[in-house]
Amino acid sequence: YKWYLIIIIPWVLTLISTIHSNNMSRGFDFVIQRHPILIYPILYFTINPDQKSKQLGFKTIIFFTLYGIIHSWVNFIYSYPNTFYHFNHNEVQQSTIIQHPYLGMMSLVSLVLLFYLENLKNISKLLLVCIAFLLISGIVLSTSRLAILLLGLIGVYFIFQKLKSKYRWILGGTFVLGILFFVMQTSLLQKFSNELTFEKSPRLLLWNNALQLTKNNESIVGIGIGDYYTKKIDPFWFLGEYQKYKYNFRGLYGYECHNLYVENILLTGILGLFFIAGIGIIFIYLLKQKNELNLILFLLLASFMFTETLLLRQWGIIFYVFVMSLILHSNKPKTQSL
User: Fold this and answer.
1) CA torsion, points 239, 240, 244, 250, in degrees to nearest 10?
2) In the predicted model, what is the mean pLDDT of the chain?
3) Which of 21, 82, 153, 327 pairs with 304 at a CA distance of 20 to 30 A?
């Protein structure tokens, strides 16, 4: 249960930040919302699932992710029958069954889990290809830049390290070129390019806003979560030019940071370093453990926390406790060559 103490650090920091808030009632909303961080790992470690149970869990996750992807595609095509083939990311984001970045990451996690199913060679290759294709389509449908970027990296890794085929160089090149072609032919290209310019990148503006607040805050334990999020604002709903943004990100309260590491520093000050230290300890442990699946899932989670404030949404909380509990459990599933 030593890992349990590291997993629950975000909940403990939320409680401390709430106590530090003038608006404690608002802070306790987040304490209650994040209670699965306390409960789920205890249940998981107490049940202590064996490898057979984990494999069943993997299949269940893949199944429901596939359902979510198909539902989202149907909703997208039904909602925009005349324009869906243009793949406008604003239309796509209104069509996914859950918020689009989470659909992308769950699709990516399911794709990884697919290659760690036991007896993989006994499954029809045609079925595997169809499932993999659907999961990749879910990542694409999410229009999540992070999920698409990670898909490219993981895809190349699996093709060159796991695929026993003399054609893997051709397959790898085709895979990468396919992703690049898709991005360049859709509105995703603009989304990617915007992140390279401060004036057009909402996340860079948000991180700058958090930096201004952190520098101007005199308390070493940060801004209480109840005070900061008294009125929560998500600027991604306010689409517009830089002129509409530039005066709104200079130390104003309420804006979602879209970075869990930054949020912990902003809301708990020096105490937020405990969260970053905990993530570092887990990373070192997984490197020593040499468990490929656990390390990949951890890197996906760590990357996602860099671009999303996971614990402000229920799906993010579920994603956090699921991955953390799984990777810190002892069983070690192994991927198979295809």
Assistant:
1) 50
2) 85
3) 21
Strand-pair partners of 290: none
Other C-beta atoms closer than 10 Å to the C-beta of 300 total 20
Instruction: Measure the CA–CA gap between 51 and 73, rounded to whole angstroms.
Output: 33
Residue closest to 301 by CA, chosen among 281, 320, 318: 320
48 phi and psi angles, rounded to 5 deg: 50, 65
Query: Sign (positive/negative) of CA torsion 191, 196, 197, 198?
Result: positive
Residue type, 27: G
Amino acid 84: pLDDT: 67
- Residue ranges in the chain assigned as alpha helix (H): 2-7, 9-19, 24-33, 36-47, 51-79, 89-93, 100-114, 125-142, 145-161, 168-185, 188-194, 202-216, 225-228, 242-245, 260-268, 272-289, 292-307, 314-327
Query: For 158-186, what is each residue's pLDDT tens digit?
Result: 877 766 666 667 676 777 777 776 666 66
Helix (H, G, I), strand (E, B) or coil at 238: coil
One-letter amino acid of 266: L
Answer yes or no: are the C-beta atoms of 102 and 319 closer than 8 Å: yes
Question: 207-236: per-residue pLDDT in tens?
Answer: 888 888 888 888 888 999 999 999 887 766
Q: What is the DSSP letter of 165?
A: -
Cα 222 from Cα 17, distance rounded (Å)? 8
Residue 310 pLDDT grade (very low, low, confident, very high; cuts 50, 70, 90): very high
Name the residue with higher pLDDT: 300 or 254: 300
Report the Cα 15 to chain-centroid distance in Å. 23
Tokens matching residue 34? 């994040």
C-beta of residue 103 within 8 angstroms of C-beta of residue 142: yes
Residue 233, strand partner residues = 255
- Entry pTM: 0.88
How far is the CA of 100 from the CAs of 140, 186, 314, in angstroms?
10, 17, 14
Q: How many other C-beta atoms lie within 10 A of the C-beta of residue 109? A: 25
